[in-house]
Amino acid sequence: MSALYDFFPTPQPKGSNKTRYHARLIIKSRITTEMMIEQIADRCSLSTGDLAAAFVEFAHTLEREIRKGNSVQLKGVGTFRGSAKSPAVRSPKEIRAENIHFGGIVFTPDKALEDSLKGMPFQRVAHTHRSKTISEIEIDGKLADYFQDHAYITTIDMCVLCGLRKSTALRRLQTRVKEGRLTHPGYSKAPFYYPVPGYFRVSRHTERGTSV
Questions:
Q1: Helices 155-162 & 136-146 angle (0-180, nearest 10)
Q2: Which of 36, 41, 64, 65 shows its CA 20 to 30 Å from the CA of 103?
């Protein structure tokens, strides 16, 4: 089975009128620990219970060793190690251990694993996963028309309206919130964005404080 890919625009320097694209892998699905256990159990004599216990203990052992400052090498998989972060200082004398914090886990794949994947087959997706090329002015026009009949818009609505990926649609909405043209009341992950009077043609539904 082939891995899927699509083409996405490559960011260009500001002021450049060039358009370039690059291939990017499209993740088809997320394989969970339980799914991995089932696959491994089908290929060996270990039970799913034994494998589940081994995965749990591996996670605990990995944490302990990284906490000690060790790297953990798994043959055929790769090496895990921790990283540190700290404020920038002019002299090492200006910083103490309390100012140094865990920075994340660095994974370096095993060369044998990388070599075995070099021949992996690819297939272009039938339907593109990238956002449509649409200007901010066009987006504003679509939003103005949309708010004639709707009190609010959600990220999913924005995706459908403008042909954008979810992450791009969310970013476009949040930009308009920062500019004061949309409002996003409620908790931080509330899905509803309302037009601010004066920036979009506010619909009759918004003026009455009702929703569609």
A1: 110
A2: 36
Residues facing residue 84 across a β-bridge: 102
* Residues 7/23, Cβ–Cβ less than 8 Å: yes
- In a 13 Å sphere around the CA of 148, the CA atoms on its Cβ side amount to 6
Considering all CA atoms of the chain, what is the largest pairwise distance in Å, rounded to the nearest integer? 69
d(C-alpha 61, C-alpha 73), whole Å: 12
Copy the structure tokens of residue 89: 């200082």
The whole-angstrom separation of Cα 71 and Cα 68 is: 9
CB 157 within 8 A of CB 212: no
Its pTM stands at: 0.58
Write out the two tokens for 135: 């200007």
Per the DSSP assignment, residues forming a β-bridge with 124 are 5
Q: How far is CA 84 from the centre of its chain?
A: 23
- What are the pLDDT digits (tens) for 63-103? 999 999 999 999 999 999 999 998 888 888 888 888 899 99
